[in-house]
Design goal:
- The chain is mainly α.
- The protein has 9 helices and 4 strands, in the order H-H-H-H-H-E-H-H-H-E-H-E-E.
- The chain has helices at about 5-20, 30-40, 45-55, 65-75, 75-95, 105-115, 115-120, 125-145, 155-165, and strands at about 100, 150, 175, 190-194.
- It has a two-stranded parallel sheet.
- The longest helix has 20 residues, at about 125-145.
- It is elongated.
- Residues about 180-190 have low confidence and may be disordered.
Amino acid sequence: MNKSNLKRFAKCMEILRSEFTPNDELSEMQMEVKFKALEDLTIEQVESATWQIIKTRKTATFPKVGEIRSTVTGDADEIAVLAYDAFRKGKGQTGIYNSVVFDDRIIHATVDAMGGWQQVCLITEDDWQFRRREFLDTYKAFLQHQPREIPEKLIGLIEQDNHNRGFSERIPEPKFIGKEKQLPRIEHNAEVIT
């Protein structure tokens, strides 16, 4: 969302307030905090979450930002497991040699934080028993607070070697990896880096 969506956002918050805490008022500061915490979502996602919460919620308190977010994105643990499965599929299909692009850029940020594509491809299957938790926790952290820069692709050995030797014209296209089960789409406000 951007500042042009502020009126629509305020209307959503007012609808939630009138439904769950009709005797309370939302201060300008509370509205600003909620807007800032949800600005990576689209206004359409916030509006959809507003109506979903009204339809399904049973408690009479104002929904927390995390509840609004999870209404849009789903359960973070489940999403992280699906992302891990997509990552493992991509790693299995391409290995260390090929560059790869996942349809979920948060996977790129997670792999980058763990040392990059080539480093994670060197992690043994035995070690993944321990490193899986690191991947899941890192992914969930980035899902909640996206990094400012996310790699456009994850660089394999062939691309790195050809680039280092000045053979930029011989860099193969990266392999695209999509998920078998589609995750909810989240607008990523992070800057894409190459």
